Amino acid sequence: MKIHRQRNNPLLLSLIFIFFFGISFSQELPISTIKEKIQLFKDNPRGPYKGINWFCEDGTVREARDPCPGKLEGVQHASYRDDTKDLAKKHHLFFGEILASTDRTAFWDEENNHSRLKQYQINKYLESVDDGWIQRKSQFYRGALQIEDEQAWGVEFYEKFLPRDERITNNYFLLKQSLKDIPHDGDSNLSQLMRSQSKTVADEFPKFMDARIKIHGNPTVEDVEMVKNFQLKYEKDLSAKLKNELEELQNTMAEIYAPLNTANLKVQVSKISKSNSTRQRLLEFLEGYSDVESPEQMVPALADILCVIRTDITEKSTGNDRLLLLDLSNAFEDVLLKKTQEWQPDTLLGLMEKIRHLSLAAAGTGLIELWEWHKIEPLLESHLNKTELSIEELNQFLQTSRGVVEWSAAMVKANYQEVVDTYTAFEPMSYGFIDDRIRSTVALDLGETVSRLGGKIAQISAMTNNVMNLRSQSSFRGLNPGYALGELVVIEESPENIDIDSDKIYIFQKPPSDLKPVAGIMTVSEGNLVSHVQLLARNLGIPNAALSGDNLKSLSKYNGKKVFYAVSEKGNVILKSEDDMSNEEQELFSKKERNTEKIAVPVEQIRLDVCEVLNMRDVGASDSGKLCGPKAANLGELKTMFPENVVEGVVIPFGIFRKHMDQEMPSEGVSFWTYLNTTFSEADYKRQNGVNENEVENYQLIRLEKLKNAIYKMPLDEQFVTDLEKKFNKAFGSAIGTVPVFLRSDTNMEDLKEFTGAGLNLTLFNILTRDNIMEGIKKVWASPYTERSFKWRQKYLSNPENVYPSILIIPSVDVEYSGVLITKGINSGNDSDLTVAFSRGAGGAVDGQSAETRLVTAKEDYLLAPAREGNYLRLPKTGGTTNNRTTFEGPILNEKNIKDIRDMANRVRTTMASEGEDANKGAWDVELGFQNDKLWLFQIRPFVENKRAKSSDYLASITPKIDYSKKISLATKI
């Protein structure tokens, strides 16, 4: 599905960041007004409603005492207040939605990524956890809705929308989840009800908090007895209201843990068309089901039947059949969630078997896609028919099973994060919705089981983390080696508007799109291995690790504490209080070592005398840092090597920028260049005179902001403009303004031996008009003086003032998917492997999206992570961009793409290595894309890793020496 939103102005990279990282229309909402409305609705006996009316089938609305006339059918329910309707009309916000008279297509809301349906679910969630939320008083408003009308509407809704195959295959998880909230004959969401009831009791009676944590985190049938005993123990302290709430909680729990009613399910199955082959499979399953069978027997059978339903649901089924099957799937899933809690393996083999079957159940319930399951199935079956595995094989199994947990959580976020972010802006309790949904799925127990396996493997291999003595140590996983000392900042909500301090250590759900330098990071959503943030962290030696959502919550109590944080090259993680640091760890932070980190941007060979626009064919690798930056130089080299896979281009060299900087800066009486150098020399003077570094930095940022804005308005030299128009026409065969192009910043600070400037400066996408190209040139020239770019290079470069931007102009290629190739196995460490990350559309993978990531070897390709980014950009010939949405039922890369990537990587290694002593002897970082299965190359640069971090004696000392070939018996006790 496409949503065309043509942009006439140049699309800045920052706008792309905003698009991809969930900053939705909530930023434009009148937040304070909405908060006032919510409070008004809570206090109003009629909530968001005005009165009771008849809604007739001819579209007329009549008073409550005046039914639809004659044979005209109608339904009676509440009508919305005018301000409720205004919120829907102006801001696409739907509060207190009554379904009975709602247009079904509008409710499906495909144009807005099903926002209205998802809002209905969030409304239900908020009502359950906040005493009715906006329905606090109107839940007792008699006649506001008729449940039988709501259920009838729900049945008709699903019967209308389920017959189309792609709706099910593309939205399987969403549909199953929606059935838990939208009234119809088979609706039930007892798990959410249990959690909300336990929360209500704990909020009113804090002594129940431990019981609530148990019910939320690790629910089992024993919890029913636990709640009964709690009520008996505190009988005298409980109010009548609390006693009633505890009894309701016990009733809900009893219903959840009641034996499966196979008789009722058989009746439901019998309603499926006899011609439907799944009908007989389900009847056979129910005939053979026994609630007293061991969970080791029943969980695999339940996982299998869930996959049968998902696989066969589109085969010759009616809308009614499909509704019945989805309801049955939810019923079987509820049973599986109970049975899996009873399955407590006590050996390695038992844990691995449980993980294998729960992973299959994740596929059967829509948490992962079927193609994803088929890619990892061989890895999760590697232990079958074996009595022992090596530590390396156990770690491979653990890595794969961790992936299933992460992909499952990411599926929930991919479906709901955008709407949750919108609601969280005015109702913070909305942020708990995603966590609640994850805990309603098999991902909860799967995550716990994987954690147990990780703990045992860590114990066997001496690969242990040391993170604040938390319980689930095995969930931490190092991504980049390094160490840091700083204040710990734990951010549970969206990070996009958080002020980032370079001296602090941050823990994010997902890092902000324009992350400024930090001392260290941990993330629940790691994005992908080759995003700009990951690459910058990697080459700066910033410690970076992944953790679970529960780990993040556990660390929140240390927010604001000063901590020491380290990640070894093998990925074990240390996080401890500053007071617990050893002498060796304290010695790491001497000023002497800090100062040696900075390197100088080489300017000795720079050619500022070349002030004409260059054809990209006329520049090569030897011109990098002299005439232009490495993007243009290396792409020019690639054009010679791979002429069919590289576009044409023109280059605006350093000299043209430098010549323009000799103009007088308005209101300053000096040139732009003098103003720039004065800024840095004055900053050095302040430092030498003991001025606080924060004050010095603030002085520089204020001055650079003024410089940046002045460059935006700088007049372009007429001779340069004429030259550009001529060279543009010659290179692209068309006049400037008729071919959409990319304007790529290309500075002399990028791709130094110890520093990559990946993603620090501006790229403008698909610019078409002449005026926008001319304005875009100035914006690119100004981009090194943005706060983010300045802070990253200030942290690492000793002469950040000597940054010269050139500009590479290349025609846009409307690729279907794009990404990054690293000619090295980042995770495996094998130089002959390839790491590949791709997202749909333009600008794929590099900006931190949850990309499809693969480890490609000479003969195999392993799925490290599937894509979970629902939004992407395309580049039409008319300029600007179109925003598009996608689902995940199929992979991005096909077999031909993988073959072409292997071939291209071999050619890059061979050709680039033969270019002489300046050629990179290590790995290469290549940006590429596919259009109609044709591979296009957009950039190549050396892949830079931080040698100080990798060679640090301290990091070597905390890296365990592991014999990965050592065999471990699968009968080993847990």
Automatic annotation (TrEMBL):
Annotated source species: Ulvibacter antarcticus
InterPro entries associated with the record: ATP_grasp_subdomain_1, PEP_synth, PPDK_AMP/ATP-bd
Similarity comment: family membership: Belongs to the PEP-utilizing enzyme family.
Name recorded for this polypeptide: Phosphoenolpyruvate synthase
Molecular function via GO: ATP binding; metal ion binding; pyruvate, water dikinase activity
Cofactor section: Mg(2+)
Group of enzyme by EC: transferase
Metabolic or biological pathway, per its Swiss-Prot or TrEMBL entry: Carbohydrate biosynthesis; gluconeogenesis
